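Observation: inputs received (chain + nicotinamide-adenine-dinucleotide).
Thought: call the complex predictor directly.
Action: predict_structure
Action Input:
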Amino acid sequence: MNVGVIGAGYVGLTTGVCLAEIGHKVICVDNDKDKLDKLNRLEVPIFEPGIEELLERNFKEGRLKFSDDIGEAVKFSEIIFICVNTPPKEGGFADLKYVEKVARDIASSLEEDYKVIVDKSTVPVKTAEKVKETIIKYSNKNVKFDVVSNPEFLKEGSAIHDTMYPDRIVIGVESERAKEKMLELYKPIINRSEVPVKIVSVRSAELIKHGANTFLSLKISFANLIAEVCDAVKADAKEVLEAIGLDSRIGSQFLNPGIGFGGSCFPKDILAFKKTLEILGIDCSLVESIEKINERSWRRFLQRIEKELWVLDGKVIGVLGLSFKPNTDDIRNSPPLKIIEVLLNNRAKIKAYDPKAMDKTKKIFPNIEYCSDPYAVAKDAEALLICTDWDEFKHIDLKKIKELMLIPIIFDGRNVFERKLVKSLGFKYFSVGR
Ligand SMILES: NC(=O)c1ccc[n+]([C@@H]2O[C@H](COP(=O)([O-])OP(=O)(O)OC[C@H]3O[C@@H](n4cnc5c(N)ncnc54)[C@H](O)[C@@H]3O)[C@@H](O)[C@H]2O)c1
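Observation:
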């Protein structure tokens, strides 16, 4: 099939290359000229394992191209995905101006042949209805189209795998014709691994995405609440949460305490969901608690550091990990950056290393010292903070780190190390809830 993907960010680019990989012809559209130039030179503007290979193969074999022209993609395609960003507005509600703009641009290019317009961006319930109204309002002719909600569940860092082998595909659709088109599109993925496909109403599909992200955030905040209790009574959150997670009704994933969640999705999606609840007059204190605990998580970590180091002014603090989670260069709402900001405000000297996120961080903190590896960070540091659980950090030579540090203290915000081992090497060691 011919497919258009509007917005070539984390979601749009992954969607585009994966749909090309399963045999469709794809035009990816973006209005960011730099991004398009890079993509046309086969440079991937984001770090995402496996994406480069797929981009190069499908581009060279003619199944994938990039454009700045939504009209070209609309004319070419049977199915058009909207994958633009939906950041929070002042006050927290999702800012849908990019979605609206794309809907208007699609409308002005529609002709008489039938199209399926798919909303893949994460949006509040009833957005698809607004997209439909917008298209009707701004198109001149007797256009035939359906608007489908097909929320995206990929995780940055494993986005290609998650798209090729998803846990489920959710298709919110009102017409049989659009449903058949979507099933045809995803057939190679569905057949390959017998993926459950949920055909639901458009409003349900929109709510599934916000509901899923709220629940995942809830699990993380719950783990952090348990960690707080464990710190207070000197119990071990790892032991407690592992045993809780063994209950098959609960499950062990996302029950890890740390310095809280970040990224471009959870914080903004739970905020948008909270706004939806407020508008509907439904009590949103559950969501507020998730946010409060999340905020407390990185602040508690900072308090520990301040308590231990006493005066921060002039102290050299090493930071390992800048991205909001491992295997991505994404630093949007990244807890490590919030921690660095406070430390800098207290005039600490920061040395930092991250396998992939340093270029992006340099734009926010140009004046901290960026190092080529964890050992350079440790040299002469009076404290070492583990802020992202990259695999690379799990395997560092702690003996060497100890020799390099001025004072051997580790604050492990992601519980990366075995407590007994680190202590036996002579470090003072603080982790979360242990
Ligand atoms: N990143 C994730 O892990 C993830 C996962 C699931 C869902 N989502 C959702 O998917 C959506 C996109 O997220 P993302 O992380 O890919 O965002 P992103 O910021 O990485 O990408 C959005 C892209 O859209 C482009 N764009 C904006 N307006 C445009 C326009 N008028 N015409 C053409 N291009 C335009 C931007 O230039 C950018 O490249 C959001 O709603 C997000 O919540 C993201």
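Thought: report the result.
Final Answer: The chain has 18 helices and 14 strands. The longest strand covers residues 2-6.
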